[in-house]
Amino acid sequence: MTPKTITIDAVLTRWPLIALIASALMLAIAHGFETFGHLAPCTLCLRQREVYWAIMAVSATALVLGRFSEARSIKPWCDGLLGAMFLFGAGLAFFHAGVEWKWWPGPTTCTGGGAANTSDLMAALNGTKVKPPACDQAAWVFVGISMAGWNSLISLGFAALSGLAAWRTSRR
């Protein structure tokens, strides 16, 4: 039995499914950092996750609509919408990375006030001082790039694949 080769054509043909899986994986990774790495998400981190949830909803809708022959003509539009959403997510993540690098100020909601997670909320209710996560401090960095920076780069790649999928299916 020979292993199957995954081609770019196969990825683009199944882009809504791949986008759904990729978004779920990105959310799982973020949740893993939160749960196992004990890195509480800041306000901008949570906003970036909302983009992935929205992408999952659009991807699932595109998959359902793709089952109906009369709705298949909207596949390029769905792929294009996914591309725009990934591009928005990349911009939001880039903004967050810029806040971490102190290139520009972050929103005032990133400077504190709220509890980071359930255990912090319980500690705050018990009178313990809790320092909420700040958007201008990178909680995790790999090869000089923060989680927000990596999210921006990955989202840009997904946006490019979405655009390519939209272009490819519109040419058919």
Give a quick summary of the entry:
By secondary structure, the protein is mostly helical.
Model regions low in confidence, pLDDT < 50 over at least 5 residues: none
The CATH top-level class label: Mainly Alpha
The CATH homologous superfamily? DsbB-like
Radius of gyration: 19 Å
Based on secondary structure, the structural category is: mainly alpha
DSSP helix count? 6
Helix share, percent: 55-70%
Question: What percent of residues are in strands?
Answer: under 5%
Average pLDDT, rounded to a whole number, is 86
Count of all domains: 1
Largest sheet: 2 strands, antiparallel
Explain this structure.
The longest helix has 26 residues, at 75-100. A hairpin with a 2-residue loop joins strand 1 (141-142) and strand 2 (145-146). The chain is elongated. The mean pLDDT is 86. Helices cover 63% and strands 2% of the residues. It has one domain (8-170): DsbB-like (Bromodomain-like, Up-down Bundle), CATH 1.20.1550.10. It contains 6 helices and 2 strands. By secondary structure, it is mainly alpha-helical. Strands 1-2 form a two-stranded antiparallel ribbon.
Which SSEs are present, and which pair or pack?
Layout: H1 8-13, H2 15-36, H3 43-65, H4 75-100, H5 118-125, E1 141-142, E2 145-146, H6 147-170
Antiparallel strand pairs: 1-2
Helix pairs in contact: 2-3, 3-4, 4-6
